[in-house]
Amino acid sequence: MSLGDANLLLQSARIAVRENRFPEAVADFLAALQTFPPYPFFVKSEKLLSRLAASDAWRPRRAIKLALLSSSTTSLLSPVLKASAFRRGIKLDVYEGVFGNYRQEILDPNSGLHQFRPDFAAILLNHRDLGLPPFGGNQTAMDFVADLRGYWKILTDVSPCHIVQLGFDAPSGGAWGSLEDVLPQGRRRVIVRANEALSADLPRGVSFLDANAMAAEVGPGYGSDAEWHAVKQYPSSAALPVMADHLVAHIASALGLSAKVLAVDLDNTLWGGVIGEDLLEGIRIGPSSAEGEGYAELQRYLMELKQRGVLLAVCSKNNLADAELPFRQHDAMLLKRDDFAAFAANWDDKPTNLKKIAKELSLGLDSFVFLDDNPLERALVRAQLPQVAVPECGNKPWDMLASLRRNMYFETVALTEEDLNRHEGYRSNAARAAAEAESPSMESFLNGLGLVGRHGPVDAATLVRVTQLINKTNQFNLTTRRYTEDQVRAMSSSPNWWCHWFRLADRFGDHGLIGVLLAEKNGGQWRIDTWLMSCRVLGRKMEDYMGACLLTAAKADGAATVIGEYVPTEKNALVSNLYSQMGFESLADSPRRYVFPLTQGPIRVCEFIQDASEAP
Amino acid sequence: MDRVAAVQEIFRQVFDKDAMTVSPSTRRADVSDWDSVAHVKLILTLEDEFQVRFSEDEISSVDTVGDLLKAIDNHVRADT
User: Fold this and answer.
1) CB-count burial class (<10 Å; 0-12, 13-18, 19+) for A550
2) Kind of pairing, strands A509-522 and A525-533?
3) Does B14 touch chain A (CB under 8 A)?
4) pLDDT tens digits for A249-292?
5) pTM
6) Selected residue of A5, A10, A47 to mutate for chain B interface (largest B Cβ count, 10 A)
7) What ipTM does the predicted assembly reach?
């Protein structure tokens, strides 16, 4: 079995679980993750991971609750995040906010977000949210940033948590080309400025994660227009493993779980060749060869880590005098003997030496990373000291460097653990009341959206889209009745039916045809057969608008009552109380059926959505 | 493992149902969880499993498991 094949390791982990050998399954799964598999791996392994994470064989270092607040879909991201956290010894409980509804969720103190009581909230936006023109968008961007920073306060006032704010990516290839980089108000320049404003003077408990670092790591394909238009996925699924690793490394760092010690082998890890055999003249380090250059660069990286406070240690099978020789006498060695906090060069096995080093430095082995070109040594350390992070690093200096970079073991956020706990105790009703008084209200938020609704009878031009919505909408769907195009055409051309489509636009753009209402006229009583709405417009009071349109039409038609019905499915709990909220009364004798008496009282009009329908 | 069984295995993983069975005649409309996000997961996983890349038309016109099998067939044949 090749250690590099994630799918084989996954298969092996599955078999181990089936045979109740959980510790081996955990080891196989961790090894598979260490190969940095592409996105589909995470879909295939989602179920297996949840089993492993729930088993006794895995002892997480920390369990946290993470809320994802995003302007794009998070359901593809969530399994990758859990796997990435698993690799770091963090057990994640993830809350996925309603897509595109992060502001509403933050503003509503009773939202799923606040009920979840997150430890961390990741606000994941992207360049599309800014809606910038190719030139001149500076004020738009600054307003957006100022608004967003206001939401941080509202969020933490109600739910004290650590916020990770993802910055805006700045994709290339805009219509104005390089002018977008060069003009002072060019789009990409404005995004750079927006990120500066977003990350400047961060309040306590908020940290900033740069999206352009991830985008650069992923390369072209960070965003996929096809996936955005198909399922509102951004960045692309292919970019999600990198994004998840960055986010988890950031969270691990905020939790104080970043590694503190890098223990390295010497021969063929810090230099090419074997010092005991090749002698000082024979080892390859420095400008003599490509390999030597590579080792010099790896050493420079280690030096930079050391300057940032990471402790370096040597863990090598060598005679001590041989091992020390290059540090003392080779001109091309960047690292010197004194750069190492611990120096174990002897013939004991490596787990023994690592334990000795940990004792010497008074640090736990769970803060160690072990770098060694020899796969057998790596396997031995993994087996005996599972708490030590052992990257698969190949045997070339550039591969080892790439592995250290990719693993982000030493990530730091300018933030201490203390910051995290600071919010404890603030969870009082007084604080909550103050938050409600100061914060922008849901009303002002909705009014600021500039919502414009339209509706009209289903006709030849809208039939295909209406039928499509009828057959694919699961969540905001009161009855989940599926109809063919022919059936919809028959209903919409019948005088006994009122079949309307609904569209919604706001100041950011047109959401298109996103709602359908089909009602049957039975004399003085209308029966709502089908009521559905696309999830992408949730939280905008569109349901109020749709309801009011229907009731008004029924009244104009001379109906006395409107009957509504809720048929529960696995997916539509979202609308279980819709009719009650709309002012319908439940029918005593038939549960989940509701009546609206048109003869009593006025119809409540939706005040947030301006009606732009053509007169019937 | 024949291709229907391999595809069924992917369905079981994506929909998290151990005992799920599919056949070429299984319709998308009959699988309650087969929404647009699940569809993307399925497509990405199938592409990985069979080392193929579907066209936009193939992806958007899937009504049955048979359509998926046909799409896989098109590419596997074309590539060998």
Assistant:
1) buried
2) antiparallel
3) yes
4) 999 988 888 899 999 999 999 999 999 889 999 999 999 899 99
5) 0.76
6) A47
7) 0.76
